[in-house]
Design goal:
two-stranded antiparallel ribbon; Rossmann fold; 13 helices; Methyltransferase, Methionine Synthase (B12-binding Domains), Chain A, domain 1; about 290 residues; 2 domains
Length: about 290
């Protein structure tokens, strides 16, 4: 995909659309094209440019100063940033650029370097989650190609599976059933939860994605889990949250079920006593560390 809206730039860079329009009027670093109906759209290079400019501006560089820099100088200034948060943002932006250009090798090397230096848990918290949050809007609007989404998801999935496989299983740990309901196929969040639970000593049963609730009921009867976890990322259009909660109450009797993910933030009805919503990553971590 090589046509981003100004809303895409706002969501990815954190710079308001109004500010981007002002920058276009005053400076030379953004030159959007126009559709037949006079709507702005931006190419890959302009998306990467706004990421660099937003990062330097956030950490003290004036826009008027940035506008006078050559591309090589902008890159040098970004590499000179030493604030830990700025370094993490730079790495996230590098992943975005690699994804846009389908630079699979560069994407994987960037992740590998951070995992080697900081471990998988810190990499997921500091790099992968912010990256997924930043590009998530593009997945929802279809402004990136399926190939871009697939290669990104598969690389991250591989890193998580390796980390899970290298973490010893404790048979005496609390039995936790992890699954995604029918219509939910994005399992990166659930895989990370699998790693976190396993690293904390839980006995994890990972059922996977798109699991019918009748199968969940059979697993509950056979395996007798103490806890169940669901992480919702991008449900299908006909997803029915009310129906899911009803099925959990019926099929996962006496199992405390933790549901996390974006959809929980917009559900305001009463929920069954056996179900808990965790509306942020922090809440999930606090619960896991407390079991």
């Amino acid at each position: 995909m090589d046509a981003f809206t100004i809303k895409d730039l706002e969501n990815i860079s954190g710079i308001k659309a109004h500010t981007i329009r002002i920058w276009e009027q005053r400076y030379n670093f953004l030159k959007p094209c126009r559709s037949d109906t006079n709507i702005r759209y931006y190419c890959n290079e302009e998306l990467k440019t706004i990421l660099n400019i937003a990062l330097l501006n956030k950490y003290g560089f004036k826009i008027s100063h940035i506008d006078k820099m050559q591309p090589g100088e902008i890159c040098s200034k970004i590499l000179e940033l030493r604030d830990a948060e700025a370094i993490n943002e730079r790495i996230v932006n590098e992943l975005v650029r690699s994804m846009i250009d389908l630079e699979i090798y560069e994407f994987e090397c960037t992740l590998n370097d951070h995992i080697k230096a900081n471990g998988i848990e810190a990499t997921v918290k500091e790099i992968i989650f912010p990256f997924l949050e930043k590009i998530g809007i593009l997945w929802q609007t279809g402004h990136i190609m399926p190939a871009q989404e697939h290669f990104v998801s598969n690389v991250i999935r591989q890193k998580l599976i390796v980390a899970i496989d290298q973490t010893p299983t404790r048979a005496d740990g609390k039995i936790c059933l992890l699954f995604l309901p029918e219509g939910e196929h994005h399992e990166l969040g659930l895989l990370f939860l699998c790693y976190i639970l396993k690293s904390r000593g839980a006995n994890v049963i990972y059922a996977g994605a798109n699991i019918p609730m009748c199968d969940v009921g059979s697993m509950v009867i056979a395996l007798k889990p103490e806890l169940a976890f669901i992480h919702l990322t991008s449900t299908c259009p006909n997803f029915n949250f009310d129906k899911l909660l009803k099925c959990i109450r019926e099929k996962a009797v006496n199992v405390t079920t933790i549901i996390s993910g974006f959809p929980t933030q917009h559900y305001h009805k009463d929920i069954p006593d056996s179900i808990q919503f965790k509306k942020s990553f922090t809440e999930v971590m606090e619960f896991v560390d407390g079991i």
